[in-house]
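Inverse folding, one chain.
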């Protein structure tokens, strides 16, 4: 009989934590980063939320939508880059989206959409070699990131943070081109 294998520790642990946070909503403020003007330099919890906001979600649809992409793309990227680097990428993306949010958005931010976009872009940059840019990366950047920029410019009021998507895509691009295997 086959045994269960915890094949992608960083991705699986992140996903389990996000699910647990959603099941225990009484800690809600710990899982959303405040917007511009609401971040307190003197409140230690505000610093914690720069990392924990990626675990909070606005509802089951939001959570399952993000986890679908994370569980689909994450294990492949974790296999390529290792659990330590994947954990660092998740923390970096959380920090980057949190910081940009407190600098430019008046709204709080929660959810793992930045991590989803980091993984989408990162997965399009597989097999990068010196001096070559994969066509898949260009297409992903055009389709996914282009749509988010357009939505942000048009100021769609859909409670979706296009900023987090764009920042996640930028972080994925930086990691993808800097962690290439030559």
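Residues assigned per position:
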């Amino acid at each position: 009989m086959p045994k269960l294998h915890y094949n992608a520790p960083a991705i699986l642990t992140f996903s389990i934590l996000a699910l647990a946070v959603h099941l225990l909503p009484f800690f809600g403020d710990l899982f959303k980063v405040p917007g511009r003007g609401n971040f307190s330099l003197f409140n230690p919890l505000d610093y914690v939320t720069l990392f924990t906001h990626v675990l909070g979600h606005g509802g089951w649809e939001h959570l399952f939508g993000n986890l679908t992409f994370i569980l689909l793309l994450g294990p492949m990227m974790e296999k390529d880059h290792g659990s330590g680097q994947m954990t660092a990428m998740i923390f970096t993306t959380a920090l980057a989206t949190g910081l940009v949010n407190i600098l430019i958005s008046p709204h709080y931010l929660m959810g793992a959409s930045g991590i989803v976009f980091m993984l989408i872009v990162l997965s399009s940059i597989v097999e990068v070699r010196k001096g070559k840019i994969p066509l898949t990366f260009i297409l992903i950047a055009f389709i996914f990131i282009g749509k988010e920029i357009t939505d942000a410019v048009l100021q769609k009021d859909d409670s979706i943070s296009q900023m987090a998507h764009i920042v996640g895509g930028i972080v994925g691009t930086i990691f993808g081109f800097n962690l290439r295997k030559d």
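Residues 2 and 142 are 42 Å apart (CA to CA). The chain has a mean pLDDT of 88.
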